[in-house]
Recover the amino acids of this structure.
């Protein structure tokens, strides 16, 4: 079996450090917050070359808290791409905002910046560009287009730890939310997330909301939530963060190898936007001709852990049916949902494993 993501291989590299760290946390009984969390927040901020990092319970909370920190509330419109994981839209709804969807670029699958800017109305409070599959969207174009407005940009950076655009990472122009779900490039041993920002005020607001609306016990200045990073997850994240740059390089090497191996096949390979350093959280190819599901089934039958990211655009989910969108409203997102196929990729994948993936893919394609 070749898994889509090999979490066991990653754990093997950090097992001793994690065990020692767990013993520290247990001995000190610092299960919520504590020195391990503080150290991770400082280390992740330094890794991201950004001033502030606030650890939270998961990536969905991170997006919601970032939205609330910039002022999104009941009735405010928030623009996001239709081809994201539903958590992005859930976070908007939980913050009280109204989801406004736009299509994606047909080649990179990143948010269509022109469509996003065209969708801005007097009710728009934020745009959420999703840094999909491991590369950053054109955030600088959004900032240029929004100059002179009070529309905030909250980046969904759940899939791009360590990625850069024109030498800058997610959040360096304002605020970004990320996820440390186990399968991410930087993954915990359970749910975890963070908000990173250049603003001390925004960081303080996020930390306050996430801690029941106050920074000291029984002081509740805001209506908050319970969304805090725990010490055990911080131990795991610290151990993996020390290896993340190297792991991302291995992902880039694996992606380059896929590019070469797949060149003769009738698939559309992924495109990296000019100016981006990709971290290849997901390596997806497009299978034309309506054959994606057939090919996926053949790969899975051959014990190749391929998958789909994502099979249903937000506007076609039951959860957001009340938005009033219909099939055909976002053709590029819909085509991506019908044709994209994610191939196994992780730092420890071997050349032999990739050779086998491509051989089985070629066989499935006929």
């Amino acid at each position: 079996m070749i898994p889509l993501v090999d979490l066991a291989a990653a754990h093997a590299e950090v097992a001793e450090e994690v065990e020692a760290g767990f013993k520290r946390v247990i001995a000190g009984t610092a299960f919520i917050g504590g020195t391990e969390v503080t150290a991770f927040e400082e280390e992740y901020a330094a890794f991201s070359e950004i001033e502030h990092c606030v650890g939270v319970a998961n990536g969905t909370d991170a997006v919601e808290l970032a939205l609330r920190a910039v002022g999104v509330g009941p009735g405010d419109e928030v623009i996001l791409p239709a081809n994201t994981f539903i958590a992005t839209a859930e976070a908007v709804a939980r913050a009280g905002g109204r989801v406004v969807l736009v299509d994606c670029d047909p080649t990179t699958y990143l948010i269509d910046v022109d469509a996003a800017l065209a969708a801005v109305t007097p009710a728009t409070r934020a745009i959420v560009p999703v840094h999909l599959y491991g590369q950053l969207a054109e955030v600088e174009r959004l900032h240029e287009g929004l100059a002179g407005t009070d529309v905030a940009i909250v980046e969904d950076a759940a899939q791009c730890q360590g990625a850069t655009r024109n030498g800058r990472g997610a959040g360096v122009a304002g605020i970004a939310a990320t996820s440390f779900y186990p399968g991410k490039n930087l993954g915990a041993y359970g749910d975890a997330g963070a908000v990173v920002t250049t603003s001390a005020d925004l960081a303080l607001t996020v930390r306050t909301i996430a801690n029941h609306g106050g920074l000291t016990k029984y002081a509740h200045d805001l209506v908050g939530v319970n969304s805090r990073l725990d010490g055990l997850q911080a131990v795991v994240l610290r151990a993996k963060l020390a290896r993340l740059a190297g792991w991302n390089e291995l992902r880039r090497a694996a992606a380059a190898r896929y590019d070469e191996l797949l060149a003769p096949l009738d698939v559309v390979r992924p495109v990296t936007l000019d100016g981006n350093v990709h971290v290849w959280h997901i390596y997806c190819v497009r299978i034309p001709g309506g054959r994606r599901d057939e090919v996926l089934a053949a790969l899975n039958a051959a014990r190749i852990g391929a998958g789909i990211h994502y099979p249903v655009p937000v506007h076609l989910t039951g959860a957001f049916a009340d938005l009033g969108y219909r099939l055909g409203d976002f053709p590029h997102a819909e085509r991506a949902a019908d044709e994209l196929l994610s191939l196994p990729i992780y730092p420890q994948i071997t050349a032999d494993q990739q050779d086998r993936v491509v051989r089985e893919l070629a066989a499935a394609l006929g």
